[in-house]
Amino acid sequence: MLGSYELLSAFILFAFVSSITPGPNNTLLLASGVNFGVRRSIPHAMGISIGFMLMVLGVGFGLGELFKAWPPLYSVLRYVGAAYLLYLAWKIATSGPLSGEAQSTRSPMSFWGAAAFQWVNPKAWVMAVGAITTYTPAQGYAVNVVVIAVLFAFVNLPSVGIWVMFGSALRNVLRNPRWLVLFNVLMAVLLVISLYPLLFVESSFS
To answer: Which has the minimum average pLDDT: 12-21, 101-110, 128-137?
Structure first.
């Protein structure tokens, strides 16, 4: 499975770096940690890891080939993803204070919502395609795809969890409603910026 120890080590490093670096998932988790704390954000983080694992399995077992055969299908997915990211940015930018009645009526992204979000997340597609095309040996391919997907989930969960904990650590700093509003607007702007590769960079499926 996975060929050599060197290949396995390289893949784990790739999974860690790609999981922990900034992107839509980690921006959302940082904001969730600030607004909801670690405990309420756990389903969000779990949904990311499990949803991404399913995406890697899908790409490994032929979904990428489907997009290559029908590029317009992927284009539709990209623009649906863009619209959803804009919606999430608006939700974050208009979030209320940390306490009071507004807080009790708000909720973090659910497990299923986070899992589904991976399919419209441009960074997740790059990570999944990179994992399959670069680190999956042809010998024993099916088994290796499963191993890659499961290992990625195990590396991904603690990596994205760091963003939740960092956000939670900022809660006391952001108790001032003015600072919280500024933070949420900044997170919304970062999400909008993350649309650049989705809309303006040539797709590998084109």
So the answer is: 101-110
**Crossing angle of helices 141-169/24-58, nearest 10°?**
170
- Rounded CA-CA distance 108/197 in Å is 26
| 205 found inside a domain | no
Residue 91 within any structural domain of the chain = yes
Whether the predicted model's global pTM rises above the 0.70 cut = yes
Would residue 108 count as lying in a domain? yes
Residue 155 lies in a domain: yes
Alpha helices in 59-176 (DSSP H): 64-69, 71-93, 101-105, 111-117, 122-135, 141-169
**Total count of domains within the chain:** 1
Q: What range does the domain containing 141 cover?
A: 5-200
The backbone region for 96, taken as left when phi is positive above 0, alpha when psi lies in -120 to 50, beta otherwise, is: beta
The CA distance from 95 to 78, in Å, is 26
The answer to whether the beta carbons of residues 147 and 1 sit under 8 Å apart is yes
